[in-house]
What does this fold into?
Amino acid sequence: MRKSLKLRDWQRAQEMIRESEAEDRRTRQQEQPVTIKGAHEKFIADAEARKLNESTLYKYRLLFRQLDAFAQTYKLQFLAQLDLDTLATFRATWEEGPRERLRAFMRFAEKRKWIEDNPAIELKAPKVPDKPTMPFKREEIIRIVDALEPYGKSAGVRNAQRLRAFVLLLRYSGLRIGDATQLEIKRLNGNKLLLHTQKTGVPVYCVVPDMVVEALEAAPRSSDRYFFWTGESTVHSAKGKWQHRLQRLFEFAKVPGGHPHRFRDTFAVE
It folds into this structure.
């Protein structure tokens, strides 16, 4: 008798679950569908409440401006219209794909049950051929160095001093921007800059001009260990800040196609 009662209780529980799920589906169908614009406005509000840094917020806002323009072109209004095929078409409009940010936005929508699932998970990265960079011309290097003066008026003399040392280091060492960002002070001994140590234990040095040494020694530091990094943030974050500073300098110098790797290219050919 007790076994029969348990069976009936279990069957009733299953019926209640099915009824609840059906009611949830009916409720979702009756709800007003969430618009693309409304969804990303709530996403930005949430991101601001979580105190995301301004550079991250800027990237999300840029993504949503692109998404709004795409939606207007293709007459899209609701979030549910952004299926995998539509997102793939949107992705094809990118020069550089903000795929992870799009995934984060769609995941945000999925958790709030605005969409059934997150189609951006299946979105593949576009294959973009590498564009080779070219060395700076001599006159471009001169314009970049001269642009430190107007840069200093905008960003401050101390920041201009640091950027000058950073530019000269990139130009005369061939270091990648990430390696320059985390360069330790102890690696510089006179004019000899320790680049790395081979597997055999043999150190590899680069001899840099006096003006590079003088610029490095004169530049204000944020750390007793590194020239250009506090050591407290991630290298990726610090590298991003130096990339931004260089980009501003290239704009002051009116050097089109300015890119940090071009310093490395210049070092390699001279």
About this structure: Confidence is low (pLDDT under 50) at residues 1-5. Residues 2-30 form the longest helix (29 residues). The chain has two domains: 36-122, 138-269.
